[in-house]
Design brief:
This protein has 6 helices and 4 strands, in the order αββββααααα. It has a 4-stranded antiparallel β-sheet, covered by helices on one side. β2 and β3 form a beta hairpin. It starts with a helix and ends with a helix.
């Protein structure tokens, strides 16, 4: 899959040695992220850049509030990676600073159209911003 992702997977195992026996599969989902599927039906999204993990159940439907918070975390990550200021992101995406702030703090979530505009402005795929399963 590429040496960088192998290294990220090894870092995941260092952070979560108790999960090693439960791993069924894993694959990259972002620049520094992998999704690890476990035998109990859960999955772990591991972000090497932020050194954090989020565990979800495959059959768990997110509430709108949970989705907004998850989207917020992913948007914050891509925003920091981009090196853009809020003003620059606002101009590139044609989304107001106030609306962007609400997305970044998980107070609301964007329409599909705005996710597309954000992904283009940040130079990432829509899935990197909204991929949860």
């Amino acid at each position: 899959m590429g040496r960088i992702y192998d290294d990220i997977y090894e870092a995941f195992l260092d952070y979560h040695p108790d999960l090693k026996r439960k791993v069924i599969d894993w694959y990259p989902v972002g620049k520094y992220e992998i999704l690890v599927k476990l035998s109990d039906g859960s999955q772990v999204l591991f972000d090497e850049a932020l050194r954090c993990s989020r565990i979800t159940k495959l059959d768990h439907w997110m509430s709108e509030t949970e989705w907004a918070k998850e989207f917020s975390a992913r948007l914050q990550n891509k925003f920091v990676e981009s090196g853009l200021s809020l003003d620059e992101l606002s101009i590139k995406s044609n989304i107001s600073r106030r609306t962007l702030s609400r997305y970044l703090y998980g107070l609301t979530y964007p329409s599909h159209y705005n996710v597309l505009r954000l992904s283009k402005a940040l130079g990432c795929s829509i899935h990197e911003l909204s991929y949860f399963n």
